[in-house]
Amino acid sequence: MTLIKRNNGLTGFRSLLSDFLEADDPVFLRHWNGEGVPAVNISESEKSYEIEIAAPGMKKDDFKVNVNEGVLKISAEHKEENEEKKKNYTRQEYSYNTFERSFTLPDNARDDNIKATYEDGVLLLSIEKKTLSVSKAKEITIT
Predict the structure, then answer these.
(1) Is residue 15 assigned to a domain?
(2) Which of 43, 54, 119, 136 has the lowest CB atom count within 10 Å?
(3) What are the counts of helices (DSSP H) followed by strands (DSSP E) for the chain?
(4) Does 104 reside within a domain?
(5) What is the number of domains present in the chain?
(6) pLDDT at 113 (0 to 100)
(7) Are strands 90-104 and 63-68 parallel, antiparallel or unpaired?
(8) Residue 16 located in a structural domain
(9) pLDDT beyond 50 at 88
(10) Which domain holds residue 55?
C-alpha cells in the first residue's frame, strides 16, 4: 500500500501554522510550563521563603492564596472578552486563563504570616520562618 500526500497549495501556510501552534516556546506560553501553569521560582533566605510566580497579563484580584493544614494553595482565574461592532461585521474575542498550584510548607514556615504582592506580572509570596528554639541539654535527677 502506498501513502499519497496531497498538496492543495496550502503546505507552506499549514507548516507555518503548525510550527507556531506546536512550538516548544510560543510567544503566548513563554512564561508557562508545559502543564498549563506558570513558571515558579522558590528561594530561601535566613528569615523567609520566597515564591515568585510569573503570571503576566493578570490582575491582583485574579489570584486566590490560602493555607490549610500546612499546604499553600495558589490559584488564579482571568477572563477577558472583547467585542468590536462595525458596519458589516462583529468581532468577538474571548480569553480564559486559569491555574492552580499547591506547595507543602516546611515545618519551620509561619503560615500565619504570609505576605503577597503582585507587580509587573510577577506574584511574590514571602513566608516568614519560625524561630525554632534549640533545646539545651540538661541533666535530670532521679528520685
Answers:
(1) no
(2) 136
(3) 1, 7
(4) yes
(5) 1
(6) 86
(7) unpaired
(8) no
(9) yes
(10) 24-129
SS (H, E, C) 78-130: EEEEEEEECCCCEEEEEEEEEEEEEEECCCCEEEEEEEEEEECCEEEEEEEEC
The count of C-alpha atoms lying within 13 angstroms of the C-alpha of 54, restricted to the half-sphere facing its C-beta, is 11
> Considering the domain boundaries, does residue 41 fall inside one?
yes
Q: Which residue has the cell 468590536?
A: 84
Q: Hey, CA dihedral for 65, 34, 20, 85, is it positive or negative?
A: negative
Q: What is the pLDDT of residue 50?
A: 95
Given a contact cutoff of 8 angstroms between Cβ atoms, the answer to whether 106 and 51 are in contact is no
Q: Are 57 and 123 in contact (CB under 8 A)?
A: no
| Percentage above 70 pLDDT, the chain | 75
Cell of 118: 503582585
pLDDT at 74 over 80: yes
Question: CATH number, domain at 103?
Answer: 2.60.40.790
Residue 36: which pLDDT band, with cuts at 50, 70 and 90?
low
